[in-house]
Amino acid sequence: MIEKIVSLEELGSLLEVFPGDLVFLRGDLGAGKTAFVKAMAKKLSVGEDVKSPTYVYYRKYGSFLYHFDLYRVEDYETFVNIGGEEILDRSWNVSFVEWPDVISDRYSPTVSVEIEKSEDPSKRIFRIFRHKRPDET
Description:
The protein is α/β, with parallel strands linked by helices.
């Protein structure tokens, strides 16, 4: 586990991601989940402006990065109907999932990120857990 307090500008330095990574993001509204994905997209040289996918369920950046916001997804069937299952089953994608509870019975993250606000409004507390990937022994 990594636990750090960092400024929003330092977010990209917190994590290395690899093809097939599934990153579950947990934190209150406004904690910085989308800011974290934005920093990771910049680090991965995706080159697009990352926006919250709250009302569209997910957004795709570049050819492999997906950012899901499942806050409004009520059940797994809805997740399947929006194409989520097909996206997560592709081993070359990197997917970040905010509010992952609706899929947590069927998918295990390779990385879990917990984000909390700190006393300094320009910084956040991050707890990052790297889990074994399905292909690791």
